Structures
1.
Amino acid sequence: MRIEQVMTKSVATCRPDDSLDAAARIMSERDCGCVPVVESNGSHRLVGMITDRDICLAAHKRNLKLRDMRVDEAMSSRIYSCSPGATPAEVEELMRSAQVRRIPIVDSGQGLLGMVSLADLARLAEARKVSERRGVTEHEVTETLAAICQPRAAAA
């Protein structure tokens, strides 16, 4: 199985020059905790990721309203991504090693194609119990969640 069969294809994005308020609004409307950041020129080239935690920490540190801060002030430019041909097991291993819950799926030019979350892999593991097709196991998802939740200082 290829990860493109599992990924969410309809992904809301924001731009580096958008306000943190706009990014938070997307998260609220889409019921998600992370938004991919794409170039401001209208392309779908991925340049960063912003999470609800990034927004909270930026607001706390700067003590400004979200509408007065830009996405590029809080986003992470370090991107962990996979190609659409990756296997669910490869994506799960990347989540584990990078300690992230979501992985953008990109083409060879870093164009955003979709997103895969740990929840997507958990649903795949549950479906595997029924269909017996190999994806990732419940045990692997549990191990990944445990690794992601480790304090980063302990992981180093």
2.
Amino acid sequence: MHGLERRQTGQATVMISRRTLLVGGAALAGLAGCATQSKFRNYQGPQVTSIQVFKSRRKMYLMHGDKALRTFDFELGGDPVGAKMYEGDGKTPEGAYMINRRNPNSSYYLSIGISYPNEADVARATAMGLRPGGDIFIHGTPREMRRAQDWTAGCIAVTNREMEDIYAMVRDNTPIYIFP
């Protein structure tokens, strides 16, 4: 009897060890899946044909023709009223531009660049004896700036999760129209 009991106990121990190994392995795989979740999403929907930004309403629309595919709230520069005139004014440009670059390693999570300044922007700033500035992006929001109002240096800031979607949906050379 003792031989049989020991054998069953030994088998039970092996079964428990296998179960522990399976459960532990599944937990580790789940954690590894969380740790390696990519910020790069895949978008298979209709093409974004333009972006419309309404600064005063703090609304941005990703458009397919005349239909809004997605709507986002956002934060702007520290002095958001009026068009960007020169470097350091804390304003977001107004007018017609293009999405002209993307930065997967942005200090602000992900970002897509806006083609500011155009020729008119350069001429206006030069006439004032100033530089027009540049590096205007749509980008994510660092943790310490979440829930802050109008904190950027002239960019358009959305949540990091929203930026993942925008980054996937919007292609380079997409027109962006920024309204007061």
3.
Amino acid sequence: MTLTYAPFTIAVDGPAAAGKGTISKALARHFMVAHLDTGLLYRAVGRKTLDGVGAIEAAQALTADDLHTDDLRTPEVAQAASRVAVIAEVRSALFDFQRAFARRAGGAVLDGRDIGTVICPEAEVKLYVTASAQVRAMRRLQELTDAGHATDFARVLADVEARDARDMGRADSPLRPAEDAVTIDTSDLTIAQAVDAAVAQVNQRRT
């Protein structure tokens, strides 16, 4: 099923490891539209800062190729991404890229932390995907373990909570649900159930 009118933006926000990326990719496949994981933009900037590049300079010079490096999913890059995301100049440098992608012909799904509130407040569909910190930490631990990273639940939970505090407490574009967003709590949902709930919300707003 293709979205036949354009632009049609689906904004998916939420904290780390809540399932927003999985849901967003599934929505893009289901409705045959483009998908952008905006967190990769900040991860790519964060990755460059680990090499000594200034955050603002890295954001201003970011290219599409920077989003396809192999090490953007490491815990170190995730923490660096969270740190650079609080810098107003970094967010400003990445704003136009995200806006242009969101309003492209044919429709788009964007997931991040301020899509429905800042990047695309006019999005036709806004979802806020969340889960308890404990559930998210367990999911993240499994991902890291599967990828061969040595860590433990306590450390991952502390990282998740620290990242939540930074994302929700930053002065510029804090993580929060848009006033008209529909919240999907995935704590007790399977992937299929969460995706079905999201698809139902999009269909409801397309009629």
